[in-house]
Fold:
Amino acid sequence: MNPSLSLLHPYPFEKLNQLFQDIQPANLPLIPLSIGEPKHPAPEFVKQAIIDQLNHLSSYPNSKGLPDLRRSIADWLNRRFQLNHISAEDHVLPVSGTREAIFSFVQACINRDEAPYVVMPNPFYQIYEGASLLAGARPYFINCTEANQYLGDFDAVPAEVWEKTALLFVCTPGNPTGAVLSGEQLKKLIALSDQYDFVIASDECYSELWFDEAPVGLLQVCAEIGRDDYKNCVVFHSLSKRSNLPGLRSGFIAGDATLLKPYLQYRTYHGAAMPVQHQLASIAAWNDETHVEENRQLYRAKFELFQHELGGLLALQKPDAGFYYWLNVEDDEKFSRMLLQHANIKVLPGRYLSRNTEHGNPGENHVRMALVADIAQCEEVVRRLKTIL
Structure:
């Protein structure tokens, strides 16, 4: 077996099962807020599109995706991020969910003979680290703390690290923090990329779950500075959060054509093409914004509920975007055990999403609470928390 497999950490939910193994939960229906799996209804028109296209079960999908899907994605990017130019032929690749794409892009991007760094936020989406280790790279963590608004301090990264960096991951809006990088901060990262010649991979899967102002995107900043070839810049987007379609496994990577061309060759061998009926249903989803705004309204209502009802009991800080509370508590593991034991509510200790560094573990004494349950369940969460707190 690949010896690098021994470097992988247990996935956070494996650690959570271990943490809870000796607990007898409260005699109440379980309400899971530990995993970021949207529970709002999937759009009916997308489900119907799949049903209408089931004849394509007899067709092999193409790794590059249908031209109509790539055009619908390019059109959406133009509408959402005001781009000057984007080619559906060269700048867009549909993928079978961004988890698969993030992992495989790292494998295609890294020259393992050089053992470069992959720089990433801490806490982070666990695929960044796992993909880096299995590609023969070294993770370098930037701690995202309350002191830096959970955005990380890029100035604190030594020049010798940037010099050996092949790839920088940013997640904006952040998972789990909900923090959003500004346009000026992204411009600064692009300048660093030019100076040290590394790729920026921006995970923007939560970009459509915002409250007051739509988050800026990496390609949008490229357009603002006239970088219409998106040199060394790629973004990942998904229908999972935007359209409540995590089971569709539909997303895309877009950006620098000189990176996407060899990555497409990798994908051709990787064999992860999206089923044709899912591609056709995805076109319908990317072409519609009404259901996306309805989705945003549902999340806004739940955050307003929690802020109003629990703001005096918990240190709730509404995120910039996304659907997570990154809640500061005295002890993240003890708090998580207490919620399960006394209220049968599952949340995730923040230390499970972070790594220890010389400056500590930035996830400790935080819990990630995903407001993915429907409004009725969220109202029940409020009642239970008021009772035990």
Notes: The longest helix spans residues 290-310. The mean pLDDT is 97. Residues 59-286 form a domain with the Aspartate Aminotransferase; domain 2 fold (CATH 3.40.640.10).
